[in-house]
Amino acid sequence: MTAPETRDRLVLALDMDELPAALALAERLNPWFGAAKVGLELFAAAGHEAYGALHDVGLRVFADMKLHDIPTTVERAARVHGRNGVDFLNFHAAGGVEMLQAGVRGLREGASQGGHPDPIALGVTVLTSESSTDAFAQRLAWAREAGCDGVVCAAAEVSRAHDAKLRTMVPGIRLAGQDLDDQARAATPDVAIANGADWLVIGRAVTKADDPESVAASVHESVDNARRAHS
After folding, report:
1. Residue 181: is its pLDDT beyond 90?
2. Is 208 noted as a catalytic residue in this protein?
């Protein structure tokens, strides 16, 4: 049996180039994941159609677009994503306060126009594939000043984000003993939850497994145990 509170904190990364295959996997893993990440690859293949299709199978949508451009362009793009019903949208915090403010504004306006609940705006601090975190403090401060609801960060930086009153979306999740692939600052699910992560983005650790359902169930149990231990 899955725990709804734990399911809501798990985000399935659908880094795929075909919507039918992504939806088939999302439906298989739906019992353990409450949201799905649509990144650049799937968005390039399916566009906003992916958002509605994932909502139809009972998943919230994290649009991992990492928007980064002049403020006007980011605001307009965010408005479209909001109008199309995303539940989470992120922006590169390196773009600075003005750009982030424009993105947050556009996202909320778009959601209102589309009749959707308020989405969650996230500032991307430092990618988990980067070993240096020198830019983290500045980008965290910009995200907070701009009115973001949270940040995307590594598990090791969660407490600093919470100190800034921001929620945390944590990628770079790997299971014990797994290949880190291109991740420089990875963490296991239980460690990320123990650090206080609000949401975990989990992709290859589950999606590339020989038995994704079994691994998903194991991850869910590990996160649920860690959540209860640190509640």
Report:
1. no
2. no
